[in-house]
Design brief:
binds adenosine-5'-diphosphate, globular, 486 residues, seven-stranded mixed sheet
């Protein structure tokens, strides 16, 4: 059943955008996309082939050769037009996202604005890609360092932020003068396709952006093996990131990888209780717990532990689980049945190793899962070492700061972390000691267009957003001018 209630139904497309043409796959094959809240089929998308992926790459390559010659102002103007069109379609884009992804409408609207913010940020950055002049040792020489676009690039994006994970990649790419072939998640392709409709309306040149829909195993290897694709930007699981890294080795591709996390959230005895509860609620239950920066382990010092557990359990009981289109609901369904099965397995494993419910027990209905609070959680449980990616809040108790930092850092991942304290010395000590790419002090939110986002260790490579975000799409060229007469 197609998405109803759109004021601009032409935003809903069931075709791929390959080299400037909206097309079905020559294979004739399609994939169905469902609504995780109802299980209903929303529509289909073309299962694009290797040949179609090659076609998109060739078109991106030729479009990029012209795009890079446009002035930064001209590129920025198109990105700003696209930004305006996205905000003008905010309600429709949010509806499409809620129907295909499940998140509640208020969060979907927040994501649309967040997604648009990258276009504005990088439109501004396009005008500041200044190089440098080196002071050379030789009298007759000057050395300039030029910044030039990487060229044709590709992106593979996930289902949890179907718009923002795309604009965070393509906005800096286009600002820098690159082109991009995008394979969106097969679970949430309609947000990506709607974004492409608006890109065309904004005047993005034909072929500069392609949206190749279909199966990862068909499209992914073509993108990684192509010598034309000079860079791949990926957001998804560490397992797939490692695979893409291997596949990209033969073409020495530049990579940005934003992978899994296992975020700790530390609450010290001197924390403001209400600030800590609000931060933990936001970082844990946003998108039903399905974000790579969701707090996965809640570490609480013994002096505040019981009060924290009691207060957060009260807040958790207020969450209303249901279809995200209904404004009274505050938490939508999980993305698929496998996600529900993982939650059940993690909770059962924790209970079997001695954890207890502080909240009402877990109950599931289709892909709807009630949020739960577990206490008495230890490092022996799966929730401590695997990303749960769902609405389970596991509380560990600790005694000392040193113990908490050691426990927080005892993971191969290093994406986001959070801690709550009112002691300024502790704020510095712990902030510097946490081995994560992002640290939130007295907040459960670390994502914004103007700050670098990314992880260390097995959480990835490179940074998105902020000033470094555009550097990911620029090469440095040292231009040596010799024989100058002074
Ligand atoms: P998640 O576990 O969050 O679904 P994935 O890493 O499986 O994360 O998916 C993120 C993106 O990577 C999606 O677009 C998905 O289709 C894609 N993907 C999954 N497997 C592969 C693969 N083998 N090669 C290329 N892309 C892949």
């Amino acid at each position: 059943m197609p998405i109803s209630g759109l004021s601009d139904p032409s935003l809903f497309r069931e075709q791929a955008l390959i080299g400037g043409s909206w097309t079905d796959s020559t294979s004739g094959k399609t994939l169905s996309v469902d609504n995780p809240a109802t299980g209903e089929i929303i529509g289909t998308i073309p299962a694009c082939t290797a040949a179609e992926t090659e076609k998109a790459i060739a078109a991106a390559d030729s479009a990029q050769k012209r795009w890079k010659t446009r002035t930064p102002d001209e590129r920025a103007a198109i990105l700003m037009k696209w930004y305006d069109l996205i905000l003008a379609s905010l309600d429709d884009l949010a509806t499409i996202m809620t129907v295909e992804q499940g998140k509640v409408l208020a969060e979907a609207k927040g994501e649309v604005k967040y997604a648009a913010s990258f276009l504005r940020w990088f439109a501004e950055e396009a005008r500041r890609m200044d190089g440098t002049i080196i002071t050379p040792p030789q009298r007759d020489r000057r050395v300039l360092v030029l910044k030039q676009p990487v060229g044709t690039t590709a992106a593979i994006t996930p289902w949890n932020f179907p718009l923002a994970m795309i604009t965070r990649k393509c906005a800096p790419a286009f600002a820098a003068g690159c082109s991009m072939v995008i394979k969106p998640s097969e679970l949430t392709p309609y947000s990506a396709l709607a974004l492409a409709v608006l890109a065309e309306r904004a005047g993005l040149p034909s072929g500069l952006l392609s949206i190749v829909t279909g199966e990862a195993k068909e499209i992914g290897p073509v993108l990684t093996a192509s010598p034309t694709v000079r860079k791949l930007s990926f957001t998804g699981s560490t397992h797939v990131g490692a695979l893409l890294m291997e596949q990209s080795a033969s073409t020495i591709k530049r990579l940005s990888l934003e992978l899994g996390g296992n975020a700790p959230l530390l609450v010290f005895d001197d924390a403001d209780l209400e600030t800590a509860v609000a931060g933990a609620m936001g970082s844990k239950f946003r998108n039903s717990g399905q974000t790579c920066v969701c707090s996965n382990r809640i570490l609480v010092q013994s002096g505040i532990h019981d009060r924290f557990v009691a207060r957060i359990t009260e807040e958790v009981a207020k969450l209303k689980v249901g279809n995200g289109l209904d404004p009274k609901n505050t938490m939508g369904p999980l993305i698929n049945d496998a996600a529900v099965a993982k939650i059940r397995a993690h909770v059962e494993d924790a209970l079997s190793h001695g954890a207890r419910y502080a909240s009402a027990p877990l109950s599931t209905d289709g892909r709807f899962v009630t949020p739960v609070v577990l206490e008495g959680v230890t490092s022996a449980m799966r929730v401590s070492c695997e990303e749960t990616f769902g609405p389970v809040l596991p509380v560990f108790k600790f005694e000392t700061e040193e113990e908490a930092v050691t426990l927080a850092n005892s993971t191969p991942f290093g994406l986001a972390s959070y801690f709550f304290t009112t002691d300024v010395s502790r704020a510095w000590r712990v902030g510097e000691a946490l081995d994560f790419g992002m640290v939130g002090l007295n907040t459960g939110s670390v994502s914004m267009e103007s700050a670098p986002f990314g992880g260390i260790k097995q959480s990835g490579l490179g940074r998105e957003g902020g000033h470094p975000g555009i550097d990911e799409f620029l090469e440095l060229k040292s231009f040596h001018m010799a024989g100058l007469k002074f």
